[in-house]
């Protein structure tokens, strides 16, 4: 799903063939998408041991649910949403919480990346679990697309182009989601600091 591999007509054709039960088409899909999906799952989970499990579930879900795909031209977007949801499901199944999957150091890294772009003092270092919980609460209040874009950019340290590619949106839309998320988080985090 790197730019050179994005041939929507080709993948739409594969979707039709897979829906018709063509095993070779599914193998072709696997071969053409696995490297990029592996990279995204690795960025998302940051756990090499979990990547293969999540990808296996992703491909099983694609195979089982291909009949629900209404428009073949959105096959790649559909796959990316499946992989994102499989990552989230994995985290839920393993009962990871914000505190266990992101320690204070990781929270600080994410906030410092956000601070570099915004130069806003509300993105200051996190020193305790309560502040990390407040950050998680603020993130949970964001709309799904904005939270996803923010976490891909700052938690997973993806470039803007990679965020747009992963979300299957234009670069301008990815930037807009991130800006909205940062603005909302600035307000939430500033409010939380005022009440302390």
Beta-strand content bin: under 5%
Q: Give unreliable regions as ranges.
A: 1-5, 96-101, 119-126
Total helical segments: 10
Q: Radius of gyration over alpha carbons?
A: 18 Å
Secondary-structure element pattern, one letter each? HHHHHHHHHH
Distance between the termini: 45 Å
Tell me about the biggest sheet? none
Question: Structural class of the helices, strands and pairings?
Answer: mainly alpha
How many DSSP E strands? 0
Shape: elongated
User: On the 0-100 scale, what is the average pLDDT?
Assistant: 78
Q: How much helix, percentage-wise, in residues?
A: over 70%
Q: How is this structure best summarized?
A:
The chain is an all-alpha fold and 196 residues long. Helices cover 75% and strands 0% of the residues.
Question: How does this model look, in words?
Answer:
Helices cover 75% and strands 0% of the residues. The protein has helices spanning 8-19, 23-45, 48-65, 75-93, 98-101, 104-118, 129-140, 144-155, 160-167, 171-194. The N and C termini lie far apart (45 Å). It is mainly alpha-helical.
How are the SSEs ordered, and which strands pair?
Blueprint: H1 8-19, H2 23-45, H3 48-65, H4 75-93, H5 98-101, H6 104-118, H7 129-140, H8 144-155, H9 160-167, H10 171-194
Helix pairs in contact: 1-2, 2-3, 2-4, 3-4, 7-10, 8-9, 8-10, 9-10
Descriptive key words:
196 residues; mainly alpha; disordered N terminus
